[in-house]
Amino acid sequence: MIAYLLPALLAAGLAFFALANPQPVAVTIWPEGWVMEVPLWQAILAPCLVTFLAGALTVWFAHLPARRSAAQLRQAAALLDAELASRDPRPAKPR
Questions:
Q1: Hey, which of 18, 35, 73, 80 would disulfide with 41, CB 3.0 to 4.6 Å?
Q2: Tens-digit pLDDT profile for the chain (95 aa)?
Q3: Is the pTM of this model over 0.90?
């Protein structure tokens, strides 16, 4: 229950921020020169979201080799466990 407290407070803070900043602003997209009218909260939070997702993807891709290595080690351990179980005359203990 307490684990949901911080995300709920963060969501409430973002909702209050969005409600407090509805005024439109002109956003110019460089280098094309496109101009968009968006609410201020979208102009601020959209780049934050894009940056957060880019960082999350970077971390996820950085951990792929470790995940692959861990999967190979789990597979090797399972094969060794199966080989040990086939050689051991005693019944295997449940984990």
A1: 18
A2: 888 999 899 999 989 998 898 999 999 988 888 999 999 999 989 999 999 999 999 999 999 999 999 999 999 999 999 998 888 676 666 76
A3: no
3-state helix, strand, coil in the chain (%, to 5): 70, 15, 20
Cα angle 30-14-29, degrees, rounded to a multiple of 5: 5
d(CA 81, CA 78): 5
3-state DSSP assignment of residue 95: coil
Could you report how far apart the first and last alpha carbons of the chain are, in Å?
A: 30
Residue type, 28: T
Indicate the SS3 state at residue 4.
helix
DSSP letter assigned to residue 88: -
Query: How far is residue 4's CA from residue 9's CA, in Å, rounded to a whole number?
Result: 9
- Please tell me the distance from the alpha carbon of residue 51 to that of residue 54, in angstroms, as a whole number: 5
